[in-house]
Amino acid sequence: MNAKAITFLAVNFIILNSAWGDIDATTGNRTTAVQFRGHLIVPPPCLLNGGEDIEVPFDRVSISRIDGKNFMKEIVYTQSCISPAPWTLSMTITSSTVASFSPGTLQTNIGGLGIKIYIDGKPLEFEKKYTVTAGSPPKLDAVPINQTGVTLAEGKFTAAATMMLKYE
User: Out of 37, 106, 128, 140, which could bridge 115 as a Cys pair, Cβ 3.0 to 4.6 Å?
Assistant: First the structure.
C-alpha cells in the first residue's frame, strides 16, 4: 500500500468516526451521546371571580311553579386568565352533594329539591374537564328542580359546588 492510500484511509476513518460517533471498544458498535434540554416554566396566574365566592340568589321560589325552567338564573362569574401556548385552560365543577335523581344536579338541604346546572345550554357533567377560552368563559345557568314523586317542604335552601380553572 502506498503513502497516498494510507493517508486516505486515515482521513476517511477520522471523518466517518467523527460523523457517526465513537466506536465502543468492547462491542465495536458506534455510539453517540444524546442530551436532553429544556426550560421549566410556571403557568401564568388565573383568578376566578376576583377570588370571591360566587353567589346565585334565588330569593323566593314558589314550590308549585318549580318545573326545571322557572326561576332559572345565570351564574354570573368572571375569570381573569391568559392562555398562552403551550397551555390549555380547563374548567371543572365538583360537589360532594350531587343529586341522585337527575344528572348535573346539586342536592340541596331540602330533600327532593335540586339545583340543575347547565353549561352553554347543556346539562353539566360534574368532574368533567371543559376546555375554556381565557377571557371568554362558558355561560352557566342554574335552575331549581323537584324530584319526581317528592312533596317539597317549605324552607330556606342551599347547595354548594366548587369551580376550578386549571392550565393543562
Answer: 106
